Amino acid sequence: MTGSVNQKGEVQPIGGVNEKIEGFFDVCRAKGLTGKQGVMIPHLNVDDLMLRKDVVQAVKEQKFHIFPVKTIDQGIEILTGMEGGEMFEDGRFKEGTVNDRVDKKLRELGTKIKEFEGAEAGTKEEKKKKKGKPTCDG
């Protein structure tokens, strides 16, 4: 997958889609087609496809795959086999989705950072007191 995603998670169209697909196909074919290789392309590029006959044949035979995607969540599902997960109004995600797991991990890391910063602030105050430097508490 090449290209970009906008702030809404929508996959943006790319230039040179045919050349990019054919180039990756050639690499896969050289290493041996397994039926598991493929590319994700922005769905807006589907109408631009004019691929070589060997690529088209490999897709027909399911030896190579082309997955058009509209959103990053669709791409996540293809890559992981797990639902991406849309955000609920309360800012949370459906339990067990990729986005839920990422959200939980980020919240956990945020809590650890706050705890660390709190501990560091206490350590700095203790060091100032030991050196006899004035602190805000007297």
Keywords, separated by commas or semicolons:
mainly alpha; single chain; 2 domains; elongated; 138 residues; Ribosomal Protein S5, domain 2
Describe the protein.
The protein folds into two domains: 1-81, Ribosomal Protein S5, domain 2; 85-132. 48% of the residues lie in helices and 7% in strands. The protein contains four helices and two strands, in the order H-E-H-E-H-H. The protein has a two-stranded parallel sheet. The termini are far apart.
Order of helices and strands: HEHEHH
Uncertain stretches = none
Helical fraction equals 40-55%
Radius of gyration: 25 Å
Q: How many extended strands? A: 2
Structural class: mainly alpha
Q: What's the CATH class of the largest domain, please?
A: Alpha Beta
CATH architectural group of the largest domain: 2-Layer Sandwich
- How is the biggest beta sheet arranged? 2 strands, parallel
In the CATH hierarchy, the third-tier topology of the largest domain is known as: Ribosomal Protein S5, domain 2
The neighbouring-strand order within the major sheet is 1-2
So how many helices? 4
Morphology call: elongated
Seen as an oligomer or otherwise, the chain set is single chain
